[in-house]
From TrEMBL, chains A, B:
PANTHER family from the UniProt entry: CBS DOMAIN-CONTAINING PROTEIN, CBS DOMAIN-CONTAINING PROTEIN CBSX3, MITOCHONDRIAL
Source species, domain of life: Archaea
Official protein name in the record: CBS domain protein
Keyword field: CBS domain
SUPFAM superfamilies: CBS-domain pair
Domain CBS: 7-66, 74-132
PROSITE patterns found in the cross-reference section: CBS
Keyword Lyase on entry: no
Name of one Pfam family that matches: CBS
UniProt keyword annotation of ATP-binding present: no
């Protein structure tokens, strides 16, 4: 089973000029914990991510909710996998980077979807694969 | 393996009179996605929870960050397990209630800890148990 197969739902995308408040509204509406920040000129091109955690941190730092998402998200070096990677790659990257989502891209680097940690415990088959092919993060 | 064994780290608690901003700061500081709201008179007694998602929703609804956490958290009917419950109970409740944390209480109902969804994919042994004892949510 590969990452493309498990990332069934389309990613929720946002452009970097949108505000924290708008990001929060999108997360609440779509019930997702991560938005993919995409290029304004090319909505297929992921250029960053903004997570619930990023927004929580912005509140803790008293950054106004009218600030733009590119100020609080992770730009450029976000965590991703390829659609043809095995699902264990997604689980491993989540552990390694201590994140709950990975962006899935196709071989051209275009946005394919998002895998959340929740997707990994939702199905018996997925759990079986993860248990069988489990590798420690410290290697 | 039971819920008490997997909930190793102490829960991060907050009292209901604290603000959303203070809750966000605690979450960011302790790197957790859920705070347990405890009774002001009895810090062992959980009376609710406030999650990252609750805070995101409050921003989307333009609730000021100076509002108290009891206005945005889940009071009273939060999702919990007992420390002696098998870990599959925690996984099942997360799927059933669509949450990423469960509060762990002891048989007196005192706060024991919190299990996050991340704790469930962190160890090979845990994954093996979850895969073996997996039961569909719709039963």
């Amino acid at each position: 089973m590969n990452c493309g197969e498990i990332a069934k739902k389309p990613a929720v995308a946002i452009t970097p000029d949108k505000t924290i408040e708008e990001a929060a509204a999108l997360m609440a509406q779509h019930r997702v914990g991560l938005l993919v920040i995409v290029d304004r000129e090319n909505p297929k091109k992921p250029i960053g991510v903004v997570s619930e955690r990023d927004i929580i941190r912005s509140i803790a730092q008293k950054i106004p909710p009218t600030a733009t998402v590119d100020k609080v998200g992770t730009m450029h070096n976000f965590v991703y996998v390829y659609d043809h990677d095995p699902i264990t790659a997604a689980a491993k990257k989540m552990r390694q980077h201590n994140v709950r989502h990975v962006v899935v891209v196709d071989k051209e680097g275009n946005l394919y979807g998002v895998i959340s940690i929740r997707d990994l415990i939702g199905e018996k088959q997925v759990l079986e694969i993860l248990a069988r092919d489990w590798v420690p993060t410290q290697e």
